[in-house]
Design brief:
It contains 13 helices and 4 strands. Strand 1, helix 3 and strand 2 form a beta-alpha-beta unit. With 281 residues, it is mainly alpha-helical.
C-alpha cells in the first residue's frame, strides 16, 4: 500500500524525457495542421512560461508569438515577468491592454457586489484574452497554445471558453508540482518559478486561497484518486485531512462539465461527441 510520504516521489518526472515528449507533441500538432506556429498568452506565471518554453524548443523562437494581455488592475510585476520570459526565450511579444474592451461592458452591465462581482469580471477577463489570442492566431496562421495544467483542469479552476480554450495543450497532463519541476529544469526565470500562483484577476488574489487547498495537497490527492483509482476514504486513511479530500472531490465533481466541449442531445445513432470520436492523425 502506498503511503503518504511516498506520493510526492511518484509525481517526480524524468525531466529530459518529459520535455522530449511534450516538444514532439507540439511539433506534430503544428506540422499536421500546416500552420505557421503558435500564439500564447504570457501571464507572468509559471504555466504560460513553461508552455512558451516548450513551444520555442519544439518550433524555434521565431514561430512562437507571445501576447501579454493586462487589465487595468493587473499587478505590474505580471507584465514584467512575462517580458522577462519572452526575452529569455527569444520570442516575439506584444502587449495589448484589454481594459478598453472589458470596461464598457461592465459600465452597462453593473455587476453585483463582493466576490460574485470579482468572479464575473475574472471570467470576462479570461474570455476576452482568449478571443484576442484566437484572433491573432487567425491573423498569423497559427494555433493557440494552451497553458492549463492537470490540477487546474481536474479541479475546474478555469473559465469555460476562457483559459481552458485552446488548440493544443502541452501541460494538460502535468500536475502543478510537475510544472514547477519542468520549469526549473528548463531554467526559466527563478522569480517566475518561485512566485505564488495567481491568475491576477484582482489585487491579492491567489490560486490556493480560492481553491481552499494547497497545490501540494491537491496534486497528491488527485494522483491517488485518478492515477491510482483510490476511493476518497482510502485517501483519508493515508493521512490526508478529510476536509481537504472532501473539498477536492467536491470541486472535481462540480466542475466536470468544464471538461466537455459540447453536450449534444442524441437524436441519431451517430451523435458527435457521443458515438463518433475521431482521433487526431
Amino acid at each position: 500500500m502506498i503511503r503518504r510520504e511516498q506520493v510526492a516521489g511518484r509525481l517526480a518526472l524524468n525531466a529530459p524525457l518529459a520535455v522530449a515528449v511534450l516538444t514532439g507533441f507540439i511539433r506534430d500538432a503544428v506540422e499536421t495542421t500546416a500552420t505557421e506556429g503558435v500564439v500564447v498568452g504570457l501571464s507572468g506565471g509559471v504555466d504560460s512560461a513553461l508552455a512558451a518554453a516548450l513551444a520555442a524548443r519544439a518550433l524555434g523562437p521565431r514561430r512562437v508569438h507571445a501576447f501579454v494581455l493586462p487589465y487595468r488592475i493587473s499587478h505590474p510585476d505580471s507584465a514584467a515577468d512575462a517580458q522577462a520570459v519572452a526575452e529569455q526565450l527569444g520570442i516575439d511579444w506584444r502587449v495589448i491592454d484589454i481594459s478598453p474592451m472589458v470596461d464598457p461592458y461592465f459600465a452597462l452591465e453593473i455587476p453585483d457586489g463582493g466576490a460574485a462581482a470579482e468572479r464575473r469580471r475574472g471570467n470576462k477577463l479570461a474570455r476576452e484574452r482568449m478571443t484576442i489570442l484566437f484572433d491573432q492566431a487567425k491573423k498569423l496562421g497559427c494555433l493557440v497554445l494552451g497553458t492549463s495544467n492537470k490540477t487546474e483542469i481536474l479541479l475546474g479552476y478555469s473559465t469555460v471558453f476562457g483559459d481552458n480554450a485552446s488548440s493544443l495543450n502541452p501541460l494538460g497532463d502535468l500536475y502543478k508540482q510537475q510544472v514547477w519541476q519542468l520549469a526549473a529544469h528548463l531554467e526559466l526565470p527563478p522569480r517566475v518559478v518561485a512566485k505564488k500562483p495567481s491568475a491576477d484577476l484582482w489585487p491579492g488574489q491567489t490560486d490556493e486561497d480560492e481553491l481552499g487547498v494547497t497545490y501540494a495537497v491537491a496534486d497528491e490527492v488527485l494522483y491517488l484518486l485518478f492515477d491510482l483509482g483510490l476511493r476518497p476514504a482510502e485517501v483519508v486513511d493515508r493521512g490526508y485531512e478529510e476536509a481537504a479530500v472532501r473539498r477536492i472531490v467536491q470541486l472535481e465533481q462540480t466542475n466536470r462539465y468544464k471538461r466537455r466541449l459540447m453536450l449534444i442531445a442524441r437524436l441519431s445513432g451517430s451523435a458527435i461527441n457521443l458515438d463518433q470520436e475521431i482521433p487526431r492523425d
